[in-house]
Amino acid sequence: MDTNSTDWIMINPSAEQINKKLSSALIPHIVILGLYIFIAIVGNSTVIHVYLYKMRESTDSRFFIPCLAIADILACTVGGFCGIYLSIYIVDFNSDVGCKMIWYLMTAITSGAAMILVFIAYHRYTKICKPYNHTNLMEKKITIVICLYVTSFVISSPLIFTSGVTTFTRGNSTFHTCERISEDYIDGMKYNIAIGYTVFEALVVITIATLMTICYTKVGLKLFHHFKQTSRNLNSLKTSNIENEEHSRDSVASIDSQLSVEIHENKPSNSSNTTASKPSKETASKRIKRKKEKFNRKHKYTFIFIAISVICIVTYTPRLILMIIESADRKFWFISTSNLSLFPFLKFLNRFYIVNNIVNPFLYAMFDPKFKRCLINIFTCQET
User: Fold this and answer.
1) d(CA 379, CA 139)
2) The CATH number of 11-228+285-302+340-379 is which of 1.10.1270.20, 1.20.1070.10, 3.20.20.140, 3.40.190.10?
3) DSSP assigned state of 180
4) pLDDT tens-digit map of 121-140
């Protein structure tokens, strides 16, 4: 039997055998989800340990990074395990309550993590572009995070009603699948409600992406202007140093020609003047260099959070598209099971957003030298 044929599911009369066949096809996907969970727990736990106990600097990032790491652990663990369970019981899912809880928890916790990214984006915007409002925001940071999660759980609550087990019959077999829009919401007013909520979900995702884009665009323009101004100052300093050096060489040549008789006495004075001018030039150059290094250190977390937000938007886009498709065609996933080449790939794209919950430790290691040193000390069993 050709397992890639689009009608193989009609040939096999047993729902249990079909479920086993589909689960076998999704073994690579299940393994990937397991790796996501492992990396998220180990990586983000390391981030929490390092930033809370090894890096004792009193900065805003010391709150946001562990907070985001906890959110990522929750999102990846819940999303990963729910994804594995759905991949094992594809057409043999019999618990309606379990299905509702899976969709509700996955959506609420993932949305909460995304809302924290919006909070971080707005925090970076106020810190760099509106520094006078920055202090008041940080005084309420814990309350804001709690409110974001409460909001996420509230706006995800309609899934408790719209999701559930949907039954399909093919030949002599009956299949039970766990869907965002259950069979109770496929007709009449209920269907309109389910579609309306899907539109609302899509608008929430688009709003989150838009807010992060606006905040970081403004931040990027501000930092670019500051960096450009610093570069202009550096170029002005270099030009000034060149002119001073030329003027010093002309002055020294003139003094040497006029005071050749007293060269022995004037040598220390000239030497002193020369050495006095060099430290001045070196001090000015070092000052500009120090400002640029301070600029990079001060805003390194901003660059990291921008990268995290971009990855979040990119990785969640496939899920947004599939969510719209599965809402428009309630048999989309059931029909996709008839192609064992396409089905695993669609499942992979559907959970691709979890990548956003595991990349953060790697970004910190790449762009934060202090975090990288702490990691090296931990793995080499050295005291910090």
Assistant:
1) 35
2) 1.20.1070.10
3) S
4) 998 888 888 776 556 667 78
